[in-house]
């Protein structure tokens, strides 16, 4: 089962490889958090086979969704977990023997049909196909009579491949002592999946360790798209009540409603810190405590480090001491390049926060030890 985090909210590749940064092969386009073109930046030599850069552009491929089946196609087994939007069971495809995970959609008011959150999740997942994004392979339907025998009830399940672990559970296991090579490969896979989502204008809005699934081959996949939505081009307001608190960026905690894919990257940074330390790094007890923990780690906001923060809706509710930041103290026992990468992702100003594509180009992934192959 997934670890329960506090305040859960309601809810195509080019194989570029390099070693020497001075060896340029061609220029690739980069995009900002809001999807705008930022010009060119260098891509690098393909001379060294041990270092991989994710494929770009990250175009959508034909998805894995097969259609709608009857639940009788599957044998339901143990319950794996339960959340706000549904419960998850382990199961077996009776026809193929494949082990799957079946997420039952909870319909609190059946007359109103499937909840909009589930409709949005299904729609998004049917469009996606990437090795580091969990695929929706089937929808399973079960119809039965209610207790009176007069009214038909419907149960709807989303079907996914079964994954052996989630990252939160893996990090809680005392025997799971991850090498730097394995830290690199897991974080690289997270960045590849995140880059794919953002390239295709999808906000996940609940990036956290419990939503990162890992199989016994070492493949990591981003899961639980219950809060995901497409990025609109009209600059509309979104709800600020997204992202589990420990992974929620400062702008959301201050009430920002016009946000970008940078909110996902804050969670990605929190996960890097969590992998390095073996525990969540910002365990706030409420929103104000969460902000204080953030400011203690990265420094208090100023007009230079977080322009316009005083104008955010909830800024007048915040009272805190002046913090200089202590990231390099808290992480002094960690790999220096990992800490440098972390410091460039956990940035107060969302416009200066690294994008997933920028993070994949960091020296952390191109120095010894190389990222482990997933099966290693």
From TrEMBL:
SUPFAM superfamilies: Protein kinase-like (PK-like). PANTHER family: CELL DIVISION PROTEIN KINASE, CYCLIN-DEPENDENT KINASE 9. One of its GO terms (biological process) is intracellular phosphate ion homeostasis. It is found in: Nucleus. ATP binds at residue 103. Pfam families: Pkinase. It comes from Syncephalastrum racemosum (Filamentous fungus). This is Kinase-like domain-containing protein. Keywords: ATP-binding, Kinase, Nucleotide-binding, Nucleus, Serine/threonine-protein kinase, Transferase. Residues 37-49 have a biased composition (Polar residues). Gene3D superfamilies: Phosphorylase Kinase, domain 1, Transferase(Phosphotransferase) domain 1. It catalyses: [DNA-directed RNA polymerase] + ATP = phospho-[DNA-directed RNA polymerase] + ADP + H(+); L-seryl-[protein] + ATP = O-phospho-L-seryl-[protein] + ADP + H(+); L-threonyl-[protein] + ATP = O-phospho-L-threonyl-[protein] + ADP + H(+). Residues 74-365 form the Protein kinase domain. Belongs to the protein kinase superfamily. CMGC Ser/Thr protein kinase family. CDC2/CDKX subfamily. GO terms for molecular function: ATP binding; cyclin-dependent protein serine/threonine kinase activity; RNA polymerase II CTD heptapeptide repeat kinase activity. GO terms for cellular component: chromatin; P-TEFb complex; P-TEFb-cap methyltransferase complex. Residues 1-23 have a biased composition (Basic and acidic residues). The keyword Iron does not apply.
């Amino acid at each position: 089962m997934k670890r329960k985090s506090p305040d859960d909210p309601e809810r195509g590749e080019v194989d570029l490889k390099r070693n020497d940064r001075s060896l340029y092969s061609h220029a690739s386009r980069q995009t900002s958090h809001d999807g705008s073109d930022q010009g060119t930046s260098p891509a690098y030599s393909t001379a060294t086979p041990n270092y991989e850069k994710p494929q770009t552009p990250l175009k959508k491929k034909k998805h894995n969704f097969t259609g709608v089946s009857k639940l009788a196609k599957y044998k339901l087994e143990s319950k794996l977990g339960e959340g706000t939007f549904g419960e998850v069971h382990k199961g077996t495809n009776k026809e193929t023997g494949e082990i799957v995970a079946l997420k039952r959609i909870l319909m609190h008011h059946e007359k109103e049909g499937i909840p909009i959150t589930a409709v949005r999740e299904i729609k998004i997942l049917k469009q996606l196909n990437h090795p580091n994004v969990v695929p929706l392979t089937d929808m399973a339907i079960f119809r039965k009579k209610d207790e009176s025998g007069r009214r038909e009830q419907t149960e709807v399940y989303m079907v996914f491949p079964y994954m052996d672990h989630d990252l939160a559970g893996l990090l809680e296991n005392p025997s799971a002592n991850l090498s730097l090579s394995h830290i690199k490969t897991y974080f690289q896979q997270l960045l590849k999946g995140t880059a794919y989502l953002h390239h295709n204008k999808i906000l996940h809005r609940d990036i956290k360790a419990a939503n990162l699934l890992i199989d016994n081959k070492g493949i990591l996949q981003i899961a639980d798209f219950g809060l995901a939505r497409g990025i609109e081009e009209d600059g509309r307001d979104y709800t600020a009540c997204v992202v589990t608190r420990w992974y929620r960026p400062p702008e959301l905690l201050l009430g920002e409603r016009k946000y970008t894919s940078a909110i996902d990257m804050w969670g990605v940074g929190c996960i890097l810190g969590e992998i390095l330390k073996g525990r969540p790094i910002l365990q706030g007890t409420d929103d104000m405590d969460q902000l204080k923990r953030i400011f203690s780690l990265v420094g208090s906001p100023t007009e230079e480090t977080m322009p316009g923060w005083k104008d955010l809706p909830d800024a007048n509710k915040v009272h805190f001491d002046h913090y200089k930041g202590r990231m390099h103290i808290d992480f002094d026992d960690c790999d220096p390049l990992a800490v440098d990468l972390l410091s460039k992702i956990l940035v107060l100003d969302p416009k200066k926060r690294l994008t997933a594509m920028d993070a994949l180009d960091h020296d952390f992934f191109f120095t010894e030890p190389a990222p482990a192959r997933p099966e290693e």
